[in-house]
TrEMBL record:
GO terms for biological process: developmental vegetative growth; ribosomal small subunit biogenesis; rRNA processing; unidimensional cell growth. Broad-specificity nucleoside monophosphate (NMP) kinase that catalyzes the reversible transfer of the terminal phosphate group between nucleoside triphosphates and monophosphates. Has also ATPase activity. Involved in the late cytoplasmic maturation steps of the 40S ribosomal particles, specifically 18S rRNA maturation. While NMP activity is not required for ribosome maturation, ATPase activity is. Associates transiently with small ribosomal subunit protein uS11. ATP hydrolysis breaks the interaction with uS11. Its main location: cytoplasm. It comes from Musa acuminata subsp. malaccensis (Wild banana). This is Adenylate kinase isoenzyme 6 homolog.
Length: 177
């Protein structure tokens, strides 16, 4: 059962690249004192990948290696996981799944400024237009733990961090019946 043996919750923050995941997670980790796990960084640091995808200019993540790497840490609780995918993590790991969403024109500017172009840019904008990650989250986790939050501005991010900090501070483990 979600949260069965944990003293502190685990939160997954997902969303298309450029929606503010890392900023939100860093601020939330500071506010709550929990561990921020940036999966992209972890994949690079520990070589949890199967090489490089030339078309999309990114590592080909090895989902099994990532899950093996995180298993013990996630069982202990008190983690904020930051990644643009969510369907391969075990359902039992998370007590809250946050999907950040950003207006397409804002997202386009953010990704362009990061040097995204061609298929990588188009794919990520389409991903946001069709709400791919929200649908993925709803298909992968109990719907009552999935929340979508708008992340267009600094004010949105601040409001989201406040809301998630309140949720974190009020969280209680579910009792197994």
């Amino acid at each position: 059962m979600a949260g069965g043996g944990r003293a502190r919750p685990n939160i997954l923050v997902t969303g298309t690249p450029g929606t503010g995941k890392t900023t939100t997670c860093s601020l939330l980790a500071d506010a709550t004192g929990v561990c921020h796990i940036n999966v992209g960084d972890l994949v690079r640091e520990k070589s949890l990948h199967d090489g490089w995808d030339e078309e999309f200019e990114c590592h080909i993540i090895n989902e099994d290696l990532v899950c093996d790497e995180l298993e013990d840490k996630m069982e202990d609780g008190g983690n904020i996981v930051d990644y643009h995918g969510c369907d391969f993590f075990p359902e039992r790991w998370f007590d809250c799944v946050v999907v950040l969403q950003t207006d397409n024109s804002i997202l386009h500017d953010r990704l362009s400024s990061r040097g995204y172009m061609g298929p990588k840019l188009i794919n990520n904008i389409e991903c946001e237009i069709f709400q791919v990650l929200l649908e993925e989250a709803k298909a992968s986790y109990p719907e009552d733990i999935v929340i979508a939050l708008q992340s267009d501005t600094v004010e949105d991010i601040s409001r989201n961090v406040t809301k998630l900090t309140e949720w974190f501070n009020n969280w209680r483990p579910r009792r197994s019946s």
